[in-house]
UniProtKB/TrEMBL annotation:
Its cofactor is FAD. This is SFRICE_038620. InterPro entries: FAD/NAD-bd_sf (IPR036188), GMC_OxRdtase (IPR012132), GMC_OxRdtase_N (IPR000172), GMC_OxRtase_C (IPR007867). GO terms for molecular function: flavin adenine dinucleotide binding; oxidoreductase activity, acting on CH-OH group of donors. It comes from Spodoptera frugiperda. Belongs to the GMC oxidoreductase family. Keywords: FAD, Flavoprotein, Signal. Residues 1-22 form the signal peptide. Pfam families: GMC_oxred_C, GMC_oxred_N.
């Protein structure tokens, strides 16, 4: 790891970004005074927190951001090295309780990577810019009775976050994309490497499309990425860099919020621990909680916001009876690997390692698919991220162990069975999953990791649907293109499912249960309608909102980074509207 850090520092210096290592790209540490007051206090300077901070500072309000992590590291800013980040100090590296389901491939728990840095999970995520589908927002608008959440009304917020640099997308789909927002959005095109798989997918009814953030929600494309000029587009950088010296912006890093204090039902102050000292900070206008899906409920529960049962177990007095920490939505995710083209070329195997030396790009071609199992539907029910791996690349094992957290045994089974073959490593996300899990503070010590139960497959329909999804995806094996290549699914011969008939539904159920991981699209622990109102205010309380992925009531049909950025923009607008009244 140290060697990678040196390479990263060297590369950043070459790119003129050695300032990241020197700590002058991000806002510096605020001077803290106990009992100081600010207009707004933001609890958690993550993906959404940085966006809200930026917009409030832009409008001349004093803002204190309290962030548990430090600055993003140089390595994290280099897009191609994302596989090195899980398990480092940028990652809370939470583990679920053992829930009898799906945990065996990760060592009897489900691994839950989550960002612990200024920028939050955007600092270690996988760069994909894929929005939820319009229907998701229209559903939220119906649920809340607030048309402000409709897709038509949310689209301007998505546009506000980005500048699409890909000329084809920008010119053809300009009505869907921003041209002056903070995040630079690009594509890395590898047409030759992905052509055969796109052809095979099309042969079994999966169209190739240009822009899944545009007019269609179904198909396969080479994805848009949160990468610009070889640099990760975390909001910690692109939203905060040019206001880092603004006197209204106060950011305290390595600072853990332990409690929010209420006077009757009004949020008035925040307690936070910095270098062993507990400070109290007062909010003149509002407190915005954006500590992420796991820590927002933990902080709220420790502050007396939660069900009586949960608070009694912690011996915390109740301030508001809200279902905080229920409704955890983690779309169960399964990986399947197919071996494809035979390839004995040693030189190309060696050249596949080059991306590791020049880590400003994703180290392998990618294909993104959002797909319905019912081919006549325009609403996808699963999503796939397909790593198009060249033959004999070590990236399969690297990604498999480091990112997806499978045991080495599972990964080596895949790796050895693709020897001399190119491969498609598909991360398959069930977007219609309905099972819910929970997040509970473990104790009144904020440093104690919350207890997280995934709830995977607690609703049996999720398991049935997972099998339908795999069968739909693997229908690609019957395409003429894949047949000609002698393609095959690998890694299906493991002992736990050896008693099931190969290819049967029972076999695939067994496969799903032994290969499910969390993916990374967590949401729902303080949802719209039952926990916050449509203005993101905690129900029954005053001067406090939640603005992070916790508020999405169900699994959205996309990934979450773009959704959370747009949410941050909307939250800022809502806050400023109230401030103006
Ligand atoms: C490994 C990974 C890969 C992903 N890949 C993609 C992708 O490719 N595309 C995509 O669209 N989405 C992706 N996502 C999802 C997306 O990045 C997240 O959903 C989104 O960033 C969440 O934003 P948030 O603001 O809700 O929370 P976060 O960004 O996680 O922010 C929460 C912040 O609160 C801070 N915090 C927590 N507790 C405290 C406390 N007590 N005191 C102070 N601060 C605290 C945290 O340190 C963190 O900075 C990925 C996520 C992960 C984890």
């Amino acid at each position: 790891m140290a060697a990678f850090h040196s390479v990263a520092a060297l590369l950043l210096a070459t790119l003129g970004l050695s300032a990241i290592e020197a700590g002058i790209v991000f806002p510096s540490q605020a001077k803290l005074t106990d009992n100081a007051s600010y207009d707004y206090i933001i609890v958690g300077g993550g993906t959404s927190g940085c966006v809200v901070a930026r917009r409030l500072v832009d409008t001349n309000h004093s803002v204190l951001v309290l962030e548990s992590g430090g600055d993003p590291s140089a390595i994290s800013m280099l897009p191609g090295l994302f596989y090195l980040l899980p398990g480092t100090n940028l990652d809370y590296d939470y583990k679920s309780t053992f829930d009898d389901y799906a945990a065996s491939a990760q060592g009897n728990y489900t691994r839950l990577t989550a960002g612990n840095a200024l920028g939050g999970s955007s600092v270690l995520n996988h760069h994909l810019s894929i929005r939820p589908i319009p229907q998701d927002y229209d559903d939220i608008a119906s649920l809340t009775g607030d048309d402000g959440w409709s897709y038509d009304n949310m689209l301007p917020y998505f546009k506000k976050t980005e500048t699409v640099k890909d000329e084809e997308i920008a010119s053809t789909y300009s009505e869907y994309h921003g041209d002056s927002g903070p995040l630079g959005i690009t594509r890395e095109l590898h047409d030759d490497d992905v052509a055969y798989y796109l052809k095979a997918l099309a042969e079994v009814g999966n169209p190739t499309v240009e822009d899944l953030n545009g007019p269609v929600s179904v198909g396969y494309m080479q994805p848009l990425l949160n990468i610009d000029n070889g640099i990760r587009q975390t909001p910690a950088y692109v939203y905060l860099n040019d206001i880092k010296d603004n006197p209204n912006l106060h950011i305290s890093k390595n600072t853990k919020v332990s409690k929010i204090n209420f006077a009757n039902s009004t949020a008035v102050s925040v307690e936070a621990i910095y270098k062993g000292t507990t400070y109290t900070f007062r909010a003149n206008k509002e407190i915005i909680v954006s500590a992420g899906v796991f820590n927002t409920p933990q902080i709220l529960q420790l502050s007396g916001v939660g069900s009586k049962e949960v608070l009694d177990s912690l011996n915390v007095d109740q301030v508001a009876d809200l279902p905080v920490g229920d409704n955890l939505r983690i779309p169960p995710t399964v990986i399947v690997v197919q071996k494809t083209k035979k390839n004995l070329n040693v030189l190309s195997a060696v050249s596949s390692l080059l991306p590791a030396v020049v880590p400003t790009k994703i180290p392998f071609p990618l294909l993104l698919g959002t797909t319905p199992t019912n081919k006549s539907s325009e609403i996808p029910n699963y999503q796939t991220y397909n790593l198009m791996l060249p033959h004999d690349t070590p990236f399969l094992t690297l990604a498999c162990v480091s990112i997806y957290g499978y045991t080495l045994d599972v990964c080596l089974r895949w790796q050895t069975q693709i020897a001399t073959r190119d491969a498609v490593y598909s991360v398959v996300v069930n977007l219609d999953a309905v099972s819910t899990g929970t997040v509970r503070a473990n104790s009144t010590d904020i440093n104690d990791a919350p207890i997280i139960t995934t709830g995977f497959y607690s609703e049996s329909e999720d398991l049935e649907r997972a099998v339908d999804i795999l069968l739909d995806l693997l229908a690609v094996q019957d395409s003429p293109t894949m047949k000609n290549l002698g393609a095959a699914v690998v890694g299906v011969d493991f002992p736990e499912c050896a008693d099931k008939e190969a290819g049967s539904r029972e076999f695939w159920k067994c496969y799903v249960l032994h290969r499910t991981i969390a993916g990374f699209l967590y949401s729902g622990t303080c949802p719209l309608q039952t926990c916050v109102d449509s203005e993101l205010k905690l129900l029954g309380l005053k001067k406090i909102r939640v603005a992070d992925a916790s508020v999405f009531p169900k699994v959205l049909h996309g990934a979450l980074n773009a959704a959370v950025l747009a949410l941050g923009e909307k939250a800022a607008d809502l806050i400023l509207q109230d401030a103006a009244n």
